[in-house]
C-alpha cells in the first residue's frame, strides 16, 4: 500500500543511529499533527523508533514491510491536542458508537491522517483528514448522522464544529476515539 | 582524548580476568533487560542512544572517570556515536565494542580443559556472550566436536591450527536455544553427524543415530567416548563419558542448575525422565567424574581460567537441583515459574531439524539473547 504522508525520509542501508538521527531532523521540518514516513532496512529501527517516539511524545502510528524495507509512520506531537478543547455539544462514547455504527443513515467519519487510518480503523469508516475536510465535506451525505472519530476526540471535535457550521444538522463527536477503541477494526494490509 | 574500538575477543579477556570495567549500554531498554554483558567486576548502566541525540550532558555524572568506560550497542554505530560525544564533552578516552552485541553473541573462546590419556587433549569453547559451551576431544590427529555452535569458521580454524581431522560432530540433543553447527561441520569435513534418534523424529536430513551404550573412539590410542541415554531436557538427550574421567551432560545438568524439561513439549511429560536421569543414572556414576555441561548461565560459573566445570561429587553436594528429595517438590521446581523460553526457540528447533533455512542475518537475529536452558 502506498500511503499519503507529509514527508518521507530515506534511511535505507543505514545502520543505527542514522535512521533515528534522520528521523529527528525530518520531524523538525513538518507541522505538528503531520505524518512522517521513515524507510529503513536496519531491523533495529523497529524497536528504537518506538522507543524514541515514546521518549519524545510523538505518535508511533505503525510500520509495514515490503521487499525487505521497513516503512515506519510517525505523527508529530501536537501540543494543542493535549489541551482540553471546547467540547462539542453532541457526544457519544466508543461503546455507544459501536452499537449504532452499522445502522442505516449512519456515517462514521475518521478525520485522522491517512497513515493512522491505514493501520487500524472502524470497518466502513470514511476517511477525510481534518486538514482536507473543508474542501471535501461535500462528499458526505447531509441527511446522514455523522459520527466523527479521531485518536482522542480533539481533532474530531474541531471537525464536528466545522461540519455543523456548514449545514450538517446531525453531527456527533465520539470520545475518546481510536486510542481506546476495542470494537472491530480493519486495515490496509 | 578519543575513542577506540575493542574486539569481542579483547572484551572476553577482560571479563575472564575480572578486570574492572564500566559499561554504558545504549541499546533500547527491552534489549538491555533481555540480555547484557556480565562480569564479576563489570558495572553496567543502560541509556538508549536515541535519548542522547542532543548530547550526553544528562548522564555525565553517572560516568566514572577513574576506570575504563566501554560503550556498547546492538551493532556498533550507536556506541561510536555516543562514545564520540562523551570524548568531546569530557576530553577523556572511551572504548566502544566493535561489531556490538551481535559479535559479542557470536564470539567463542577455546580454552584447554585437560590432557587426556595417550597425549589426547580436551578443549572447551566458551561462547561467553550467550553461555553456550562446545567441546573438542583431540587424539592422534583426529577430532570429535561435541555440541559445536553455528560459528563453524571458528571450529574450522581450530581444527586447522591443531592439524586434526574431524571424525565425528555430535549433538547431545536437539538444541532449542542456538543453531547447531554439527551438521554443517560434518558435511564440510566429511565426518559423521551424530544426533540422538529420539530427538531426530522430524529431521529432514540423514544422520548417524546416536544410541545408548555406543562407544566412539578417537585416534589410534583410542580415547573412549561412551554414550549414555539420559533423557529429561529432551526425550533423546544423551550424555557422554570421555576417557573415563569426564561426564558431558549436555543440557541435563549444569554447574549451578539443572536442565528444563519444557522446550520441546510439555514439561509434565518429561519431568519423570529428568528426575530418573539426575537422581538415579547420574547418581550411580563414579562421583569423581568431572562434569562438563553445554551451558552456563551465571558469570560466577566461570573459573579463573574462563572454564566451566565441576566434579560430580561437588554438584551432588551443592547444586540445589540435585538435592530436592521429595518428588512433588522436584516436579514443582522444574515445571512451575520457569524462566521465559529462549528467544525464537521454535524457529531454532526447526532450523536444527532442517525444516527451516534462515539467512545468516536471520540466524544472528534468532540467536540474540541468553540461552535460558536451565530451570533457574
TrEMBL record, chain A:
> What's this protein's name?
Rhodanese-related sulfurtransferase
Query: Its domain of life?
Result: Bacteria
Ranges for domain Rhodanese come to 102-187
The UniProt GO MF terms for this protein read: transferase activity
UniProt KW keywords: Transferase
Q: Pfam families recorded for this chain?
A: Rhodanese, TusA
What's the source species for this entry?
A: Salibacterium halotolerans
UniProtKB/TrEMBL annotation, chain B:
Q: Which SUPFAM superfamilies match?
A: Metallo-hydrolase/oxidoreductase, Rhodanese/Cell cycle control phosphatase
Give the Rhodanese domain ranges.
17-113
Tell me, which GO biological process terms does this entry list? glutathione metabolic process; hydrogen sulfide metabolic process
Top-level taxon of origin? Bacteria
* Gene3D superfamilies recorded: Rhodanese-like domain, Ribonuclease Z/Hydroxyacylglutathione hydrolase-like
Residue segments, region Disordered: 335-376
Cite a single GO MF annotation.
sulfur dioxygenase activity
Bias (Polar residues) ranges:
343-354
Q: Which PANTHER family match?
A: BETA-LACTAMASE DOMAIN PROTEIN, PERSULFIDE DIOXYGENASE ETHE1
Q: What is this protein called?
A: Glyoxylase, beta-lactamase superfamily II
**The organism of origin for this protein:** Salibacterium halotolerans
